[in-house]
Amino acid sequence: MNIEKSLKAFSDAKEVIPGGVDSPVRAFSSVGGTPIFIKKGKASHLYDIDGNKYIDFVQSWGPLIHGHANKKIEKKVNKAIKKGLSFGAPTIVETKLAKKIVNLFDELDQVRFVSSGTEAVMSAIRVARGFTNRDDIVKFEGCYHGHSDSLLVEAGSGAVTFGTPSSPGVPADLTKHTLLAKYNDIESVKKCFEDSDNIACIIIEPIAGNMGLVPAKVEFLKELRTICDENNALLIFDEVMSGFRASLKGATGIVGVSPDILTFGKVIGAGMPVGAFGARDEIMNRLSPEGDIYQAGTLSGNPIAMNAGLKSLDMLLEDDKLYEKLEKKALRLTRGMKEAASLYDIPMQIDVRGSMFGFFFSQTPVTNFDDAKKSDAKLFASFHQGMLNEGVYFACSLYETGFICTTMSDKLIDSVIKKAKKVFKELS
Ligand SMILES: *Cc1c(COP(=O)(O)O)cnc(C)c1O
Hints:
The chain folds into 2 domains: 4-69 and 320-427, Aspartate Aminotransferase, domain 1; 71-317, Aspartate Aminotransferase, domain 2, CATH 3.40.640. It has 14 helices and 18 strands. It has helices at residues 4-16, 71-81, 92-104, 117-132, 172-175, 186-195, 218-231, 252-255, 281-284, 303-318, 322-342, 369-374, 377-389, 410-427, and strands spanning 38-42, 45-48, 53-56, 110-114, 136-140, 153-154, 164-165, 178-181, 199-204, 207-208, 214-215, 234-238, 261-264, 275-279, 349-353, 356-360, 392-393, 402-403. The strands form 5 sheets. A 7-stranded mixed sheet has the order 4-14-13-12-9-5-8, sandwiched between helices. The protein has a 4-stranded mixed sheet with strand order 1-2-3-17. Strand 1 (38-42) and strand 2 form a beta hairpin. Helix 2 (71-81) packs antiparallel against helix 10 (303-318), helix 6 runs parallel beside helix 7 (218-231) and helix 13 packs across helix 14. The chain starts with a helix and ends with a helix. Residues 155-160 have low confidence and may be disordered. The structure holds pyridoxal-5'-phosphate (PLP). Pyridoxal-5'-phosphate binds at residues 116-118, 121, 144-146, 205, 209-210, 238, 240-241, 265, 275.
């Protein structure tokens, strides 16, 4: 595979953009490779600037559930663009999209739009703190909720649950309110509530997609609901990734546990920068201008982005078997790859939720971040490079999730399994 132009583009970029990328995971550093510079996308495929073609399971990290450059969304966006890119004043399309989202969820009376998942979660946390008049929050190891200060936290030493910053530039004074618990481990959550009587909320990815794909156990989520109720704390489901991905109603539509606040992003903007958070009236009415909790955004509810999101959601609503079909394809892919790996005695753990899929090179099941970290990172890096050479674009980190889009056929998936078999053979 020739990637000469990408190599040159990367070195040019590095001169003026830190690390050559505007978001770190794009740099391919965890698999020791070089990022591919993209020229265009079409349906299931990406095309790089050297003329190579890839089957894309990253899909802009989730948003593109209808594949690249979908004609219907393109048409809608083109029409909107002609009327102006932004007004900083209300537009009808915001209400239309909000209504559709609110109608889907029993949990939601209102949503507010922002411009990224990070913003959605940051705002949701502020509302939870303002509403409960408490400062502490509980988050889980391995869950990612964007890069805002109080959420960039990793484990403190030993028994202390109070978090320490995972990045320079984040004052410990800001993260001391973030308590860290272990995913799928209810005792660690109970410990947080023993350590603090000032907990505003628990925030969780109910289907974690940022430590690889690791779904929370339903029983665990039920217990979180109970603990929140007993302590008058709010439960936040961060569905920035799983929303409109795991099912039409995300994880919330699958697990049968109701959160107090939901956050969205990724698919909701269909590739445009959109995030959203929502809750019942009692909570959302606390937001300014109605209420006293401040939250704002110059480009929030941007009309181009809203039109893209609305068209995308309408298309998802058209086919009530859509997520079943996507899940079948995700199962076909992961089972096929696992079978191929087993021919060469390579142990693989696989999981699927709707259009989301994940795999780990591990002998044992992965239920939390510690398990994920124990999986074979070296093998993942070699597999990633091997598949890239075969024209298959998987996320360049083992802590990411893969995505199926509506344009992927069984035939396409079978071709990927064949390529995986070839790569496993070379690696064994
Ligand atoms: C991607 C993601 C975010 C952050 O969204 P951005 O749009 O990248 O700011 C937050 N939470 C979860 C669960 C995510 O997957």
